[in-house]
Structures are given as C-alpha cells and as structure tokens.
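To the wet lab folks,

You asked to see what we're planning to order before we commit. Fair enough. Below is the target structure as tokens, and below that is the sequence we designed to fit it. If anything looks off to you, flag it before the synthesis order goes out.
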C-alpha cells in the first residue's frame, strides 16, 4: 500500500512514512485502504503516532474488526438522486445570487508539441461519458427540493481559437481564460463544463476548461488530467479506451452521504465540533478600510517565494516533530495572525479532500470539505510546542472531517452576518504535488517530457475571493516554496498584503533557524525592514529635558 501511494519501489518495515514523502492526505488514503483490505477501522492519527510499517501493522492487528461506516454502493438511476450537502449549499447560493461566477473553476492546461486535435476531443468526450457528474445538472421539484439530473452521454464542444497572430499569444490566451471564467453557468439547464482549445502556435496550445464547483474540485483536476492523458495516448494510437469501469459515481456518494450522515453518526461528530468551537472568537484583522455591510468578492493577490534553504529546514523540523509541512506552515501563519490581530485564539479555515474512502479516490465531483482549525497561542509557547498543538488540532479535525461544513454552519451560527463569512474569515491551503500526477499529454520529439503548465492570473489581474485573506503555499521545485496571499480589495491595500507576506517570510526564517524560541520573541519583521526603521529614525539628536526630583 505504501509503495503504491508513495510512488516508490520498495518500503522497509522500519521506514518512516513521512520521511519517505508521506503527508496527511496520503496518510488518509493509507487508512482508507487498510479499512478496505483488512476491515479494520484505524484512526488517521495512528499514522502519525506509529509511522512505520511494523508499528502500523501492530495497530491494525489490534484494531476492532468490522466496518463502522458502510461502503459506498451503486444505486439505481430510477430513483430521485439527491444533492450532496456541499452541492445543496452552492445550489442555495446560486438561487440567492443568480448569475454569480464566484464558484467557477478554471482549469487551463498548457500543451506543447504536435497536437492531435481529434484525439484530444475524443479523449475529453470519453472523460465526460465516464463521469456522470460532468453531465449532471441540478433541478428542483414543485416543493423546491433540489435533485440531480444526469443527462445521457453526448459530445462536449471544443471550439479552436487561434491567437497565434497576436503580438503576445500567451497573454491573449490568459485573457480568453479569464473571460470564460467570468461567464455564468445555469445549474438547471447545464452543461456545467465548458471547453475551448486556444492555439498559441502550431505546436503550442492551451486546453481551456471551466467547470462549476458543484461538479468539480481540486482533486478532480488531478483525476481529469491523469485520465485525459491516458485516453489521448490510446486514441492517438487508435487503441480502445484503456480505463477500467467505475463501480460507483458521484450520485452514489451523495445518496450514501445522505443515508449515513444522519442520526447518531452525525450527532456524534457534531458534538465534537460544538465543543471545539464553543465561544468561537472573530479574528479582528487590522483592515485598511471599514468593513462593508455586505461582503465583497472582489480581490487581488500578491506572490512571494520561500527559498529552498528555509523550506528544507522547515521540512526537517516537521519530521522531527512528527508533523507535516501543512502543520508547520499553518503554525507559522497562526503566529503572524496572532501578532497582527493581538489575539491568542486564532481561527483559520482549510480545505480537506474528504476522499477518505477508497470508492471516491478515482471519481470526479465536489467532495472537498472545509475544516475549522482553532489554534491556542496562549502561554507564550515555544514554536515547537505550538507545532505540537497545531498537530493535535489538525489530527482531531481529520478524524471528524465527515461533517459537511454546511451542517456545521447550520448547527453553530444562529445569526448570519453578511459582512463576514461564517465561522472564519481567513483561509489557508498547502498544496503538495502528488508525484503520481506528473502526467503529460504530449512528448517532444527528442523524448523530453513537457509538463502541463497551469496559467495563473497576473498579480494585477482582478479576481474573485471568498474570504478576507487566503494564504496558499505549494512546492515550487528544487526545494523552494511558492506563496500567494489573496485578499479582499474592499478591506486591504496591495501594500498591506505585501507586508503580510514579508512578515510570514520573516517568521518562517526565524523558526527554521530556532524552533525553541518563544512565539512572543519571534520577529514578524525581516532584517531589512528593521534596518530601514533604524535608518529612518536617525535624525537630529535632541537633548532630553531635565527631570525634576520626585
């Protein structure tokens, strides 16, 4: 199991899962496979406390047998197919604000090399046929109860747009992607996926895909790219579809979720969150402007990098603490937020793939859930101690990740505040590339692989944002990290986001150098900023006035 998930040929009995490249998402998949193969229900925290094959085997041997949670099974299509809880929330929001493009997800894929357009179109059609959710729309009955409607298979239009004559073809392609992202979907009439092929040159193209979030998420993007590559290769060589049939579909998951997350199963998980989030504070961010009465979705972004030397030290710190990079980076972000807000109770939202069952790993659909992570900074702990707190909070949250965020809001928020998102206003995500997803659609003539490159918005381009602040971090290659701070332009100026990025970089440098220093002693200013302040304070010397005796 480990070898398959980690992409390595051999794993020793005493090898450490996280030293081999494992992280919390892969740990969840190990536990899912253990449940599927051995019928043993083992908490995901077990992977962190017993991170070798030998230790995990002992825990599996002693675990209770028998599946606590029923498996996802295929159901008949002659019945009403309900929405998943996540779909229901977006369906409601779409009715609240018709025509909103806030939940449009672009997936532009750069294709370099000689392209067989017919094979690509056939491969894309095959993906849509394979995954019912990509030909699903949301309707409602006379009582206003929404349900899924799965349309029969049909081809997806893929018009070719030639921008090769433009002075800057790549910028022209970016503009086309941005325009398509801002075109609304009709959830009731569908389809909820659009495609266009943008030709930059004879051997350079961009496959511009846009989906609505009700049928897609980030994990789905990896599934789509992987399957599209396999199908393209097969069809280009005039071979049949090589992919095995899917035993279940997204609609089956929605039925399973509705049936299982009811009664005691839901109540027991809700009790954890009610206790964990009791008296939840509002994180009072120091904004540049007063908060508007209704939250604005207009946003901007600033980007930064964390050098490989610092990132490698943080990885070593994570391994030493039995934590993941996600936990270490979140702890550092909590330090910055606590200092900026003058708070020792910091609340941040984060996504979780919510694919903790083997039946859902290969499906496209809207599975992603949102977790609320509450960090206690009180007592001026060392950073190592804070990391241990964050580690335990994250593991407990993973163990209770099945409760849909929508259910959590309904249970915990009695009065809605339209000026803020419920429960938290700051979002954090660390995306680690999965080596199994490094597939390419095309090969260069000299045998060198040319990877798929996702086109990103320029820093100055207008964009939507779901939260006051969002921090995204990811591996940038050669050990470095890439970072992006997305911010609400109704609240913050670009300079503020840039200063926040510098503060985070300063904290990461400091804790990478010494994780045993107290959080209160960690500077949120870089050496250059401190020197600038000192130089700026060097003016005319004035004698202090005399102080009379007391």
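Sequence we intend to order:
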């Amino acid at each position: 199991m480990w070898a398959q998930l980690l992409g390595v040929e051999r794993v020793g009995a005493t090898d450490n899962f996280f030293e081999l490249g494992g992280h919390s998402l892969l740990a969840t998949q190990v536990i899912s496979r253990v449940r599927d193969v051995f019928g043993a229900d083992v908490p995901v925290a077990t992977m962190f406390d017993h991170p070798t094959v030998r230790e995990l085997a002992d825990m599996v041997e002693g675990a209770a047998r028998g599946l606590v949670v029923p498996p996802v099974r295929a159901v008949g299509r002659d019945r009403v197919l309900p929405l998943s809880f996540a779909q229901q929330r977006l369906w409601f929001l779409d009715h609240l604000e018709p025509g909103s493009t806030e939940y449009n997800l672009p997936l532009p894929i750069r294709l370099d090399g000689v392209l067989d357009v017919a094979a690509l179109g056939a491969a894309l059609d095959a993906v849509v046929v394979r995954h019912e959710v990509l030909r699903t729309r949301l309707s409602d009955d006379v009582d206003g109860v929404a349900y899924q409607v799965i349309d029969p298979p049909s081809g997806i239009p893929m018009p070719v747009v030639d921008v090769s004559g433009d002075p800057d073809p790549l910028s022209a392609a970016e503009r086309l992607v941005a325009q398509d992202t801002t075109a609304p979907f009709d959830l009731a009439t569908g389809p909820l996926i659009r495609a266009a092929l943008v030709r930059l040159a004879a051997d350079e193209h961009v496959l511009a895909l846009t989906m609505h979030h009700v049928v897609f998420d980030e994990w789905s993007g990896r599934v789509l790219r992987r399957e599209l590559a396999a199908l393209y290769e097969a069809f280009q060589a005039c071979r049949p579809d090589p992919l095995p049939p899917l035993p279940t579909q997204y609609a089956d998951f929605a039925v399973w979720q509705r049936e299982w997350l009811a009664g005691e199963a839901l109540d027991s998980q809700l009790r954890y969150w009610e206790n964990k989030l009791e008296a939840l504070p509002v994180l009072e961010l120091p904004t540049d402007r007063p908060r508007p009465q209704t939250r604005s979705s207009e946003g901007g972004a600033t980007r930064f990098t964390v050098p490989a030397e610092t990132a490698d030290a943080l990885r070593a710190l994570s391994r030493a603490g039995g934590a993941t990079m996600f936990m270490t980076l979140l702890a550092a972000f909590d330090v910055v937020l606590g200092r900026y807000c003058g708070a020792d109770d910091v609340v941040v939202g984060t996504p979780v793939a919510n694919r903790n069952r083997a039946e859902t790993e290969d499906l496209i659909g809207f599975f992603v859930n949102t977790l609320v992570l509450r960090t206690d900074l009180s007592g001026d702990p060392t950073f190592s101690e804070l990391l241990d707190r964050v580690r335990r909070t994250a593991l407990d949250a993973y163990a209770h990740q099945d409760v849909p965020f929508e259910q959590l809001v309904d249970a915990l928020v009695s009065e809605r505040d339209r000026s803020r998102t419920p429960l938290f206003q700051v979002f954090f995500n660390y995306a680690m590339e999965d080596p199994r997803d490094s597939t390419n659609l095309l090969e260069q003539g000299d045998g060198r692989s040319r990877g798929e490159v996702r086109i990103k918005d320029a820093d100055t381009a207008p964009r939507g944002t779901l939260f006051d602040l969002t921090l995204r971090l990811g591996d940038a290659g050669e050990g470095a990290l890439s970072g992006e701070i997305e911010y609400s332009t109704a609240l913050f100026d670009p300079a503020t986001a840039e200063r926040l990025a510098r503060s985070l970089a300063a904290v990461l440098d400091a804790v990478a150098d010494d994780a045993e220093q107290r959080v209160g002693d960690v500077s949120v200013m870089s050496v250059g900023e401190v020197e600038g302040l000192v130089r700026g304070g060097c003016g005319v010397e004035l004698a202090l006035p005399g102080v009379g005796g007391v």
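Structural context that might help your review: The domain at 81-252 is CATH 3.30.559.10 (Chloramphenicol Acetyltransferase). The CA atoms of residues 535 and 541 lie 14 Å apart.

Thanks,
Computational group
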